Amino acid sequence: MKYRVHRFNLKMTGDQSTLEQFLNGLEGEVIAIVPNVTIKVMWVPQVDFLLIVEKLG
Description:
By secondary structure, this protein is α+β, with helices and mostly antiparallel strands. Helices cover 16% and strands 54% of the residues. It has one helix at residues 16-24; strands spanning 2-9, 29-39, 45-56. The protein has a three-stranded antiparallel beta sheet with strand order 1-3-2, with no helix packed on it. The longest helix has 9 residues, at 16-24. It is elongated, with a radius of gyration of 13 Å.
């Protein structure tokens, strides 16, 4: 099996449709979506990007 890892930069408030289009455009099966969470000012967590693991068949 071969795997491909994609990095998807996003802003949680406005990239829902872009993420949906990206996921629907993948050729293989999505195995995992790993968010990169950082702590900003006043201890507010924020997701900067997603790592999307795709299994190619």
